[in-house]
Amino acid sequence: MSIKIGIMGYGNLGRGIECAIKQNPDLELVAVFSRRDPKTVKILTEGVGVYHVDEVLNFKERIDVLVLCGGSATDLPTQTPEYAKYFNVVDSFDTHAKIPEHFENVDKTAKESGHIAVISSGWDPGMFSLNRLYASAVLPDGKDYTFWGKGVSQGHSDAIRRIDGVKDARQYTIPVDAALKAVRSGSNPELSTREKHERECFVVADDGADKAKIEQEIKTMPNYFADYNTTVHFITQEELDRDHKGIPHGGFVIRAGKTGWNRENSHIIEYSLKLDSNPEFTSSVIVAVARAAYRMHKEGMAGCKTMFDIAPSYLSALSPEELRANLL
Amino acid sequence: MSIKIGIMGYGNLGRGIECAIKQNPDLELVAVFSRRDPKTVKILTEGVGVYHVDEVLNFKERIDVLVLCGGSATDLPTQTPEYAKYFNVVDSFDTHAKIPEHFENVDKTAKESGHIAVISSGWDPGMFSLNRLYASAVLPDGKDYTFWGKGVSQGHSDAIRRIDGVKDARQYTIPVDAALKAVRSGSNPELSTREKHERECFVVADDGADKAKIEQEIKTMPNYFADYNTTVHFITQEELDRDHKGIPHGGFVIRAGKTGWNRENSHIIEYSLKLDSNPEFTSSVIVAVARAAYRMHKEGMAGCKTMFDIAPSYLSALSPEELRANLL
User: Contact, B88 vs B64, CB < 8 A?
Assistant: First the structure.
């Protein structure tokens, strides 16, 4: 008996979910839903249908967990509480500041309907959050640091593309090596924004555009670049397409803390990710969470959950006995 | 209302538990139990009594969680199932091959008495196990590797000390750098025992002892050293006491896995620990687990658990709301 998954939204994340389901024999994709005309949406899995969003309620009895692949800005704040009325759902809501509000909204409808709704799954929020929690619970007398990268920031790439004279662009966020070293030394340094990350931009300019002006505009852009050391490289569209098409990402969560009667011993806990594909890794976390959501619902639990509320064994395809014998 | 903790056994681990309790304002040490004459056991916390093991049942109503600090070879196999009849308990049972048997024994008495008994808490088993579970659930198409060190192995140090002509010794387990690099490359190499770890020994020989013979005996010792590249340094007792008195340890759990419709993307998940004091870090994990055991018992759960069964939020002193607002 496989766990039946529906995918709501078929962009990079939806496609990643589809690929991840293929890797997990206990999961089965039963339908993909899109706001586009279903005839125009080509998916990878043979024999699985694409349907218009409006048809999703017809699948109430056929889907165990609906994975919501919309964006955090406008889709998920309404979609997750709405679909939690009818389905167990998982989303990857990642606007950190609005998580408490989103949680309350989703919790209400999920509790009323008796479903499990897991929000903010992925790697940050997600695996990185878990590591912040575990490390701070174990080393309360300490400080943690999160670094992102090296990886592509879609938001920053978009910001560059909006500049006059820019044809295309790709921006990488890069942790500053000296900052990583300082944190790993256990000295718990105070680090400014500029000291933690730098930004590297690959820009394709329109013919005849004023490159010096573009570079200046990038480097002084408030919020996005002004607080960082930023490097700008002008390249051709061919070079961009050849060398910068991937969506790599990753990062580090590091906590340094003290133990001992007189705080005489230091400890460093470090978790890091190095990802070829940000959306595919996020999707891989989400499908494990979907498995957990199914199991928790089956045991009679309901309401909004985050990865903080999920006992790790629920995520694995292995039985508790197998986990204890092989992984403990 | 603090959570009341009792410590059973006062060696390195018991003392570590005492130090960790001091760092967690929601926990309170109420008693230490020892097989030794209580008058001979000096603890660090003022106003807390030391009692003989035989008195522990008098504390049934005064202790929320009893932390068992005995050894895995002979103490815990009998202590954990026995004390789970009367207390919520946490142990750090670390004989990996015997965990399933230990679990069954403990589960029986804990379920009968309605207590929570968490076994195999610490970092391996413990935090490393959690990371093996999370990483394999997220990247099912992959392979994980655990490396230990650089750190002191008590068992290997003891083995050297049993050799004729050896006065004192300290052994370090060290991950081989080339192996770490190969694993981080994502190539999922097959690694022999010798390729993964090397062993470095600091030995104080008796006056006039045959050092060449001692070195030979160490390097050819079956199970302990014969399968490893081993370096032996002869030093003085003064040097050993000065430079090798600490109990550092640590290690790495690394999983490399593939995603994508055609397995076209690679990902590396890495978790590492660098610990000044192995027993103090283990203790720090255990007290967080004790907090979780108390909460789970209060919610009506019972039976044997491992860290796999504990939702992460139970481990933290922060409330679910604080966790979502600050760490997610």
Answer: yes
Average pLDDT over chain B reads 97
How far is residue B215's CA from residue A310's CA, in Å, rounded to a whole number? 51
H or E element: which one contains B162? none
Instruction: Give every strand in the sheet of B197-205, ordered side by side.
Output: B151-152, B166-175, B197-205, B229-234
Spatial distance between the Cα atoms of A273 and A254, rounded to a whole number of angstroms: 12
A97, A249, A268, A279, B231 from A123: Cα distances, Å: 16, 10, 21, 10, 41
User: What gap in Å lies between CA A125 and CA B165, rounded to an integer?
Assistant: 57
Question: Which residues of chain A fall below pLDDT 50?
Answer: none
Q: Verify whether the Cβ–Cβ distance A269 to B273 is below 8 Å.
A: yes
Q: What is the pLDDT of residue B1?
A: 81
β-bridge mates for residue A31, sequence order: A6, A49
For B278, the closest chain A residue by CA position comes to A267
Burial group, residue B63, by CB count within 10 angstroms (0-12, 13-18, 19+): buried
Residue A134 contacts residue B292 (beta carbons within 8 Å): no
Encoded tokens for B147: 């490396």
Cα gap B247→B154, rounded to integer Å: 9
Indicate yes or no: CB of B134 within 8 angstroms of CB of A315.
yes
Mean pLDDT of B208-232: 96
The 3-state secondary structure of A55-96 reads: HHHHHCCCCCEEEECCCCCCCHHHHHHHHCCCCEEECCCCCH
**Strand order across the A303-305 sheet:** A49-52, A27-34, A3-8, A65-68, A88-90, A116-118, A303-305
pLDDT, tens digit, 9 for 90 and up, residues A19-44: 999 999 999 999 999 999 999 999 99
Could you tell me the pTM of the whole model?
A: 0.97
* B252-282 tens-digit pLDDT: 999 999 999 999 999 999 999 999 999 999 9
Nearest to B313 among A96, A309, A321 (CB): A309
The pLDDT tens digits for B27-80 are 999 999 999 999 999 999 999 999 999 999 999 999 999 999 999 999 999 999
